[in-house]
Amino acid sequence: MYIPMIFFTIIIEKKKVTPEQQEAHYLQKQAIAQWEEQKHQIAMQFPEYLYR
Questions:
Q1: Please, which domain of life does this record's source organism belong to (predicted)?
Q2: Quick one: which of 30, 35, 29, 28 has its CA closest to 43?
Q3: 46 near 39, Cβ under 8 Å?
Q4: Which of 48, 30, 26 shows the shortest CA–CA distance to 38?
């Protein structure tokens, strides 16, 4: 039995990012980095709990 092949193309459009979105993304990355640093600083105060 013959199965026809279906040819199709996928068009991926690059999402246009506004300057406000770029700034929000940057601030979010900075906040996450700051939170990770605080978490690391707190963990370093208690080194006996780092290694189990």
A1: Bacteria
A2: 35
A3: no
A4: 30
> For residue 2, what is the DSSP state?
-
CA distance 14 to 37: 33
> Contact 43/50 with Cβ under 8 angstroms?
yes
Give 34's Cβ-side CA count (13 Å radius).
6
Q: Which amino acid is at 31?
A: A
Q: What is the pLDDT of residues 24-34, one digit of tens each?
A: 999 999 999 99
pTM given for the model: 0.57
- Between the alpha carbon of residue 51 and those of residues 27, 42, 44, the distances in Å are 33, 15, 11
